[in-house]
Write a structure and sequence with these properties.
This protein is α+β, with helices and mostly antiparallel strands. It has a 3-stranded antiparallel beta sheet, covered by helices on one side.
């Protein structure tokens, strides 16, 4: 229990920038988002500086399901990722799986369109 108390003390001593960096590292490591769910708003006091919201410019392409034409999906995954046959097959059979991460909106949409033509279900996050 003392380890948890020390962890709380260490986290409490972080600066805002360090906390933001920690949040980003954990999001990448655990493939989660720290964004608040829709409908929840944060209140900002008058003393807090105004921050600008940056538009997201990196997206992850995720294979949700392969559909009925798995062979065609495997072929397209190989073309997109450069994976070998076994790795592409394992990725498709292990859906949901990350196909590409940190790609532009245009590239993510292009990948989604190609894979959906083969019958796969794709998410862009």
């Amino acid at each position: 229990m003392s380890d948890l108390a020390k962890l709380v003390d260490d986290l409490s001593s972080l600066t805002i920038l360090e906390a933001a960096e920690l949040s980003k590292i954990l999001e990448e490591k655990w493939h989660v988002s720290a964004a608040a769910p829709i409908g929840i708003t944060a209140s900002v006091s008058d003393s807090a500086p105004a921050t600008t919201v940056e538009e997201k410019n990196e997206f992850d392409v995720i294979l949700s399901t392969a559909g009925t034409k798995k062979i065609n999906v495997i072929k397209e995954i190989r073309a997109i990722t450069g994976l070998g046959l076994k790795d592409a097959k394992d990725l498709v059979e292990g859906a949901p799986q990350l196909i590409k991460d940190a790609v532009s909106r245009e590239e993510a949409q292009k990948i989604k369109n190609k894979l959906e033509e083969t019958g796969a279900v794709i998410e862009i996050k």
